[in-house]
Write a sequence for this structure.
C-alpha cells in the first residue's frame, strides 16, 4: 500500500541553526509534493509545492528538495527562529490518482529554542 | 476574505446523537474535502466533492455522510455518533484537483467529542 513517512515526530534545534525535516514515501509515484505548516489549534497552511521534475524549490528561508530516486523530500528552514516552531506536514498527490487523493504524512513537530 | 469557515468550532455529543458540521468557502473553489486528524494518525480524508451536487468517499468514510447542494458549502453529517468519531475535523477546498498540483486551503477545525 502507499505509504508516506516523516522520520521524526519531533525535532528540537537552537535558534539560528538550519532545521532539516525528512519525508519518505513508498509504493508511490507522486507528481507533486507539498509542505504545510500547522500551528496548535489551527488548520494546516500551505508553504511550498515541488514537482517531480524539479530538484529544488526555495521561498525566503525555506528550501525543499525532491529526489524521486531516493523517494524522499527534504524541507529546510535556514536561520531558524522561535516563530518557526510548529508541526510541518508533507503531502503527496499522484498522477492518475483520485482527485481527492492528497495523502499527508503524520507531521514533524519542530521546536526552535532561543 | 474569509477563506474556509467551519461551524461549530467545538461540540460535545452523546453516543447515538446526530449532528452536522458546516463548511463554507468564498474562493469559488470546485473541490471540497473533509478530513479528520487524530493523534498518531495524521490527516485522513473522509469524503470529498469535485463540484456542486457531487460527493465521493475518501479513506475513512464509514459513519459519515456528506452533501454539496451549493458550490460554496460542504456539509458533514454524523447520523449516530460513536466515541471513535471523537476527533478534530478539517474542511478544505481547492480550485481544482490536487492531482494537477493545486494546493488546498484548510479551515480552522472543529473539535468534536463523543461521550
Amino acid at each position: 500500500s502507499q505509504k508516506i513517512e516523516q522520520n521524526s515526530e519531533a525535532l528540537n534545534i537552537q535558534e539560528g541553526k538550519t532545521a532539516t525535516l525528512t519525508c519518505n514515501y513508498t509504493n508511490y509515484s507522486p507528481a507533486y509534493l507539498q509542505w504545510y505548516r500547522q500551528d496548535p489549534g489551527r488548520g494546516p497552511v500551505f508553504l511550498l509545492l515541488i514537482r517531480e521534475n524539479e530538484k529544488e524549490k526555495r521561498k525566503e528561508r525555506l528550501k525543499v528538495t525532491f529526489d524521486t530516486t531516493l523517494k524522499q523530500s527534504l524541507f529546510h528552514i535556514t536561520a531558524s527562529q522561535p516563530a518557526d516552531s510548529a508541526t510541518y506536514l508533507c503531502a503527496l498527490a499522484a498522477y492518475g490518482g483520485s482527485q481527492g487523493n492528497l495523502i499527508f504524512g503524520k507531521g514533524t513537530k519542530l521546536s526552535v529554542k532561543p | 476574505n474569509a477563506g474556509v469557515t467551519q461551524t461549530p468550532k467545538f461540540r460535545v455529543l452523546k453516543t447515538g446523537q446526530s449532528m452536522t458540521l458546516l463548511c463554507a468557502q468564498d474562493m469559488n473553489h470546485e473541490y471540497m474535502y473533509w478530513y479528520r486528524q487524530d493523534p498518531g494518525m495524521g490527516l485522513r480524508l473522509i469524503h470529498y466533492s469535485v463540484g456542486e451536487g457531487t460527493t465521493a468517499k475518501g479513506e475513512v468514510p464509514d459513519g459519515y455522510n456528506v452533501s454539496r447542494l451549493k458550490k460554496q458549502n460542504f456539509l458533514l453529517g454524523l447520523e449516530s455518533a460513536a466515541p471513535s468519531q471523537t476527533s478534530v475535523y478539517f474542511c478544505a477546498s481547492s480550485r481544482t484537483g490536487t492531482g494537477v498540483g493545486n494546493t488546498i486551503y484548510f479551515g480552522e477545525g472543529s473539535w468534536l467529542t463523543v461521550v
